[in-house]
Design a protein that fits this description.
The chain is mainly α. Helices cover about 70% and strands about 0% of the residues.
């Protein structure tokens, strides 16, 4: 093989690799722009409040209604967190007991004395 054929082969390989990188760059740029467009649309949807929604669901409204605010427990005292946990646990246990009593009543089964409070 003559010496100039090696130069042509290397020029062709370099041209192919550069075109491959250019196509990858174009594809990456298009995907990035599509992602940015979706992100902008999501920001517009989440960034505005509708008139119907108003202030419902905001932290101030939740605090006034007595509902827990996400992240509020981080700043609460340990005693308050323990009391909240124990009261919520008691509510869950009572709800389970009520469902169990109703289920057994519907099936005409005997009730447990601890379930009906005797």
């Amino acid at each position: 093989m003559p010496w100039w054929s090696w130069i042509l082969i290397w020029i062709a390989l370099i041209a192919l690799s550069l075109s491959f990188y250019a196509l990858l760059g174009i594809r990456l740029f298009r995907q990035f722009m599509a992602t940015m467009k979706d992100l902008a649309e999501a920001g517009e949807r989440l960034g505005t409040f509708s008139d119907e929604q108003g202030l419902e669901g905001t932290a101030v409204t939740r605090r006034q209604a007595g509902e827990p605010v996400p992240g509020e427990a981080i700043f609460a005292s340990r005693v308050q967190s323990l009391q909240d946990y124990q009261s919520a646990k008691a509510e869950r246990q009572a709800a389970r007991r009520d469902r169990r009593v109703a289920r057994r009543r519907d099936r005409n089964q005997l009730q447990s004395l601890s379930d009906i409070g005797l």
